[in-house]
Design a protein that fits this description.
Four Helix Bundle (Hemerythrin (Met), subunit A); globular; mainly alpha; single chain; 243 residues; 2 domains; Hemerythrin-like domain-containing protein; Hemerythrin-like; 9 helices
Length: 243
């Protein structure tokens, strides 16, 4: 496990215990992106020709998804790459690659947004296939990017960013209102975690009011949202009320 700098920036004591990698929190968001973008082409292809109501619903979901990835990448661009380049100059090629991949994905997401608008009005077969192909391309490019980022950038960021900096980044990102329903995102993250890790994540990441809200209404809301997205799929694996 990589050890980060302590919050003071002073060298860590030789016998200091390793702290969990804060980039692991970002990896959980990556898992959500992998799942939602992986599902997206099939969702579009499954819409019956002319079903404009279903197309309108999925259009809102897809536009929210692309906006959420734009926002995620803007945050990484703002907080990660300059610091990584300054503090780990030997990783300059990785920084350049991350920035270029973000730019390329941004262009591909803009194409998707335009194709969503073309498709949703009439839900015709040709427009649906054009959109699905574009989503396939985003899914492939995103998978490569996330693999590269998690392998080449995150171990370095865990070394060069202090605990205080990670907290500041988390607080700044937390001020952004998500472009997709919050309970959907929380539920997807929980589904991504092994059963043995869920309680720790809940205690660490969810304040008590959110835990209470998820227990009372959020889990059911998540399951309804997931069922509406994937009506032919079975109920979400591993879902359970919060303790």
């Amino acid at each position: 496990m990589t050890e980060r700098l302590p919050s003071t920036g002073a060298p860590a004591a030789p016998d200091a215990p390793a702290t969990p990698c804060r980039s692991d929190e970002v990896v959980l968001i990556h898992l959500v992106f992998r799942r939602l973008f992986g599902d997206a082409p099939g969702l579009v292809r499954d819409v019956a020709p002319g079903d404009v109501d279903r197309a309108a619903f999925l259009a809102r979901h897809l536009l929210g998804l692309t906006e959420m990835l734009h926002t995620h990448h803007r945050a990484e661009d703002a907080f990660f790459w300059d610091r990584m380049a300054e503090r780990a100059p030997a990783c300059g090629l990785h920084v350049t690659a991350m920035r270029r991949q973000h730019e390329a994905l941004s262009d591909e997401l803009d194409v998707v947004d335009a194709l969503v608008d073309d498709w949703k009005a009439e839900a015709d077969v040709i427009a649906a296939e054009h959109l699905a192909v574009a989503l396939d391309q985003v899914d492939r490019a995103l998978a490569v990017h996330l693999d590269d980022e998690e392998r080449d950038a995150f171990p370095v960021l865990d070394e060069v960013l202090s605990e205080v900096e990670w907290d500041e980044i988390s607080a700044e990102v937390g001020r952004e209102r998500p472009a997709l329903p919050l309970f959907l995102l929380v539920g997807l993250i929980m589904d991504s975690l092994p059963e043995s890790e869920r309680d720790a994540w809940i205690a660490r990441e969810l304040p008590w009011p959110m835990r209470a809200a998820y227990r009372l209404v959020g889990r059911r809301s998540y399951e309804r949202q997931l069922q509406r997205l994937r009506p032919a799929a079975s109920s979400p694996k591993g879902s359970r009320p919060l303790a």
